[in-house]
Structures are given as structure tokens and as C-alpha cells.
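Hi there, hope your week has been kind to you so far. No rush at all, and the record is pasted right below.
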Amino acid sequence: MQRLLATALLAALLPAAPLSAAENLPPVEVFAPVPCLACIDWAEHLRQNGFSVTMKETADMAALKKRLKVPAAVESVHTARVAGYFIEGHVPAEDIKELLKEKPKARGLAVPGLPAGAPGREASNPSCERGCTVLDSTPEQREVRRELYDTLLVDLKGQTRIFNRH
């Protein structure tokens, strides 16, 4: 038992192993209204996929989206910034990593609206008033209702094309 405790303490004191080049991801700033539990869940999805995330509560999301040139047609609840791109809505971490790898000349990525089953929208939270995923509930099992959705690439002119399908 003492050896296990000593090993745990030593691991806590040692610096974390350096990230490999593939894991060296830029930080993400997430701007969200207060409270938005689905936004917090999406930020946690990014953390679990190697991103360093800072949450910033923002009362005037419309002004932020306008400043970042997020087209109204692709808006969702939260907006993020990473490496000069905006990330609008519940974009999967894998899509952000692909964007960062390809580095297209674009404004950013967007998942418009609040698709059920997208990252941050998989779990039920009855206190969420901003569109959390609803779970189908039967006595035997609970199952996430999912819907198909697209991640859109927003080019420099504000036009969109499908970047990925989910």
C-alpha cells in the first residue's frame, strides 16, 4: 500500500510527459452564454481529445459572432476560437484537428443549430434550457436520439461547403 501511494505521489510531482507533435494542439477559447451546460460538455469533449480549453462567459454572443464574421445561417449557441479560426457550435474535435492539419484559407468550421448526439449533446440534463440532448426513456433502457449532421467549412467570403458528415 505504501509503495502504491509513493508511486502515485511521485507521478503527481513529475512533469507531464511532453506532447508529441501530433498532440501539440493550440489552445481553444470557448465563448458561451451563462449557463449553457451543453457548451460546457462540448468543452470537456475537446479536453478529452487533447485540447487546452478556456471558457469565457459572454453576455453578448451576437456581437461576438458578428466580430468573428460567423454567418447567421450557421449559428449555434457557443462560439470558439482556435489558431485564427472560429469554431461555431458542436463541432467534433476530430474535425478541428483535421482543420488544423489542412490549414485551409477559411474563417472556420460550423455545426449549425443543436444536433442531437453531436459532441456535448449526448447526455441528458433536465436543467439545461439551451437544447441539451433528450434521451429516449423506457423502463428497459435509455438511448440517445441521434440525428445526422454536417460540419461546414466557412470560406473567406462566408460561403459554406460540407467539411465532414456525421
The two ends are 46 Å apart (CA to CA). The beta strands are 28-32, 53-57, 79-82, 85-89, 106-111, 135-137, 142-144, 150-155, 160-165. The longest strand covers residues 106-111. The chain has four helices and nine strands.
